[in-house]
């Protein structure tokens, strides 16, 4: 085993003595809901119980939707000024910062990600709340003053209504922050369902929003499983829009369920994202970016750069140096301040990732480093794993592994690189590494993905939109583009003076 693995310290002073007992948040109140059953969450790194949640039911969703609908129709949030909404949202950002230590620790205990990373994500989330508060003041439409003397045309935006938000376990607080503030800035009300195993920080956010002055019923959280709570949200007739983030398979189910009342659907789904490295790239930068791109969040990241396409003339040198660097990455106990990558989210997912690694070996990919679970008493850890000579027919090339696994494929020409990069049903993100400006621009034009990086990866703030081409999704989150998704457009023709009569007298 590598000497950069930090064994789990089960006596760490930050570990809780007993599990935190959460309730759901409906209509401004904490509630156990209709079920007497609880769901128990263990830290995937420490194997101790850290949180318990009510196992929500379809009736709990109905209660939350009723509260959100009444809050929306009352106008107490949907019809107040953007400035008044911004005040609550800025206070929310401030409270997130004040509670950063508690939020980050809970995030780490439930997800197994490094505490240093959780702090960065909570900080980043507060920034998004501030940014979106500004947008609340600038939701605007358009006017047409060119329709002749007797006519004025207006295009106005209105909040779409009640939004159901289903989020995954990989970035519970941050992915929420890429959605909730835009939904609230638009004037909508919402019912949130975080992944059952990582609902803690979404519930802490509910308390923060109440303290910040958000009216009751505007933000509701129902805890519970996807098959019960999530399913009810996607098919509920009184929900106007669903924002779903997760696997493509469940996204397809959400698409079918939403047909019932033709609700609008935003989908952010899987990815099998290429990092295309040309021979003229700054090698040191490309090596570091490739490493970060496939290992960030232990590879459990929808925009993970999980496929490396590298020009054949530098392929051998690049792979050798990449392996040397991969061995230096510090993994293990997420509470250790030096740890860079933490645990795998659940035993089930750990087995899935290990299964893909075995599949890669069987299909003839060449294992350069890693390839096994880390042998340790506690926790679910997998070694950073790099496969070389991966061809497009192999399962590890095609399917989203969602773990610390990189698949390397060499290429001989620009055209071949683009063809291999686009040879996937996904189209979420891609990175191009080159010092040639023409190639960089041509590359981001030719790559079929919603989010592109040139000479960097997994970078950026809330200003730019994110979302996928092909089976990676529908719609965009973030920026003013994200906010627009949560609005309905209304066109208004205003007749000035007398209207020309249809029926002659
Ligand atoms: P899922 O798609 O199953 O889960 C995402 C969210 O959807 C969770 O809140 C889940 O609830 C909920 N959900 C599950 N079933 C339904 C349903 N029938 N109707 C409505 N909502 C539902 O992802 P997994 O957690 O199982 O992860 C599996 C794979 O998905 C990963 O390996 C990865 O490939 C991909 N994934 C992609 C993510 C991304 O950011 N694009 C994020 C997470 C996963 P609950 O978990 O409580 O059951």
UniProtKB/TrEMBL annotation:
Domain Aldehyde dehydrogenase: 30-492
Keywords: NAD, Oxidoreductase
GO molecular function, one term: oxidoreductase activity, acting on the aldehyde or oxo group of donors, NAD or NADP as acceptor
SUPFAM superfamilies reported in the protein's UniProt record: ALDH-like
Active site residues of this protein: 268
PROSITE patterns: ALDEHYDE_DEHYDR_GLU
Keyword ATP-binding: no
One Pfam family matching this protein: Aldedh
InterPro entries, per database record: Ald_DH/histidinol_DH (IPR016161), Ald_DH_C (IPR016163), Ald_DH_CS_GLU (IPR029510), Ald_DH_N (IPR016162), Aldehyde_DH_dom (IPR015590)
Similarity field: Belongs to the aldehyde dehydrogenase family.
PANTHER family the record matches: ALDEHYDE DEHYDROGENASE-RELATED
Protein name: Aldehyde dehydrogenase family protein
Lineage, broadest ranks: Bacteria, Pseudomonadati, Pseudomonadota, Gammaproteobacteria, Enterobacterales
């Amino acid at each position: 085993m590598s000497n950069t693995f930090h064994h789990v310290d089960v006596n760490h002073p930050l570990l809780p003595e007993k599990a935190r007992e959460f309730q759901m948040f409906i209509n401004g109140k904490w509630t156990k809901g209709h079920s007497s059953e609880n769901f128990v969450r263990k830290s995937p790194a420490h194997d101790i119980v850290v949180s318990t949640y009510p196992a929500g039911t379809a009736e709990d969703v109905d209660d939350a939707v009723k509260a959100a609908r009444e809050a929306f129709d009352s106008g107490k949030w949907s019809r107040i000024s953007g400035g008044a909404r911004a005040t609550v949202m800025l206070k929310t950002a401030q409270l997130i910062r004040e509670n950063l230590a508690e939020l980050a620790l809970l995030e780490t205990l439930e997800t197994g990600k490094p505490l240093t990373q959780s702090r960065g994500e909570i900080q980043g989330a507060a920034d998004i709340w501030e940014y979106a508060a500004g947008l609340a003041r600038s939701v605007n439409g358009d006017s047409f003053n060119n329709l002749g003397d007797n006519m004025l045309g207006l295009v106005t935006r209105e909040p779409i209504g009640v939004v159901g938000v289903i989020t995954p376990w990989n970035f519970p607080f941050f992915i929420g922050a890429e959605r909730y503030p835009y939904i609230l800035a638009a004037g909508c009300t919402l019912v949130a369902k975080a992944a059952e195993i990582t609902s803690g920080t979404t519930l802490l956010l509910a308390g923060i929003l109440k303290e910040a002055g958000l009216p009751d019923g505007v933000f509701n959280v129902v805890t519970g499983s996807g098959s019960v709570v999530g399913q009810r949200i996607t098919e509920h007739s009184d929900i106007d829009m669903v924002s779903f983030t997760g696997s493509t398979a469940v996204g397809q189910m959400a698409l079918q369920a939403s047909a019932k009342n033709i609700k609008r659907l935003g989908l952010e789904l899987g990815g099998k994202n290429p990092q295309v490295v040309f021979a003229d790239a700054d090698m040191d930068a490309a090596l570091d970016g490739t490493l970060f791109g496939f290992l960030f969040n232990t590879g459990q990241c929808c925009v993970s750069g999980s496929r490396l396409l590298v020009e054949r003339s530098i392929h051998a040198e690049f792979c050798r140096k990449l392996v040397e660097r991969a061995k230096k990455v510090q993994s293990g106990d997420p509470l250790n301040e030096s740890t860079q990558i933490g645990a795998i989210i659940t035993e089930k997912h750990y087995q899935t990732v290990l299964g893909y690694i075995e599949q890669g070996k069987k299909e003839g990919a060449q294992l350069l480093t890693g390839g096994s679970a880390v042998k340790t008493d506690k926790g679910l850890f997998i070694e950073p794993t790099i496969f070389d000579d991966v061809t497009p027919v192999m399962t590890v090339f095609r399917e989203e592994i969602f773990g610390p696994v990189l698949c390397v494929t060499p290429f001989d020409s620009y055209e071949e690189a683009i063809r291999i990069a686009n040879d996937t049903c996904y189209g979420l993100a891609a990175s191009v590494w080159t010092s040639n400006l023409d190639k960089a621009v041509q590359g981001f034009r030719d790559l079929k993905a919603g989010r592109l990086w040139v000479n960097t990866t997994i970078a950026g703030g809330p200003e730019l939109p994110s979302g996928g081409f092909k089976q990676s999704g529908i719609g965009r989150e973030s920026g003013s583009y994200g906010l627009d998704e949560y609005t309905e457009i209304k066109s208004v023709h205003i007749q000035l003076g007398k209207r020309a009569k249809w029926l002659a007298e």
